[in-house]
Write a structure and sequence with these properties.
Pfam families: HTH_3 (PF01381). InterPro entries: Antitox_HigA, Cro/C1-type_HTH, Lambda_DNA-bd_dom_sf. This is HTH-type transcriptional regulator/antitoxin HigA. The chain is mainly α. Helix content is 63%, strand content 0%. The protein has seven helices and no strands. Helix 1 runs antiparallel to helix 2 and helix 4 packs across helix 5.
Length: 123
């Protein structure tokens, strides 16, 4: 596949196959440059064609944790507080901007999905 703007699902799938083939190519080689270009093209296609998730941030966080085999203790270690992790997951406290940034950075969850308002549990 010659790298070009991806416009169809078939082109997208072909680009993913090529990325898989090139994965691990050394930087500053023709293969590495091709890999970088394909990653950019796939990212562009996904940005244009992916429907934004309208999901509750805490449900998303819990689903991500489950899928990655992470626990509440992992969240506590990441944000620096066992009690805060419990309060967040039990909807007793909202995520802060700093926590959202940390989670997004370390666990690769898009911050824009975590900043949406969500209901807290009744006190």
């Amino acid at each position: 596949m010659e790298p070009k703007i991806i416009k169809t699902e078939d082109q997208y799938e072909a680009a993913l196959v090529e990325i898989e083939r090139l994965w691990g190519a050394d930087d500053d080689t023709p293969e590495g440059d091709r890999l970088d270009l394909l990653i950019l093209l796939v990212g562009d296609y996904e940005a244009r064609n992916t429907v934004p998730l309208n999901v509750d941030p805490i449900d998303l966080l819990k689903a991500n944790m489950e899928a990655a085999g992470r626990t509440q203790a992992d969240l506590a270690e990441l944000i620096g507080s066992k009690s805060r992790a419990s309060e967040i997951l039990n909807r007793k406290r909202s995520l802060t901007k700093e926590q959202i940034h940390t989670i997004s950075t370390h666990w690769n969850i898009p911050a824009d999905l975590l900043i949406k308002p969500y209901a807290l549990a009744a006190a």
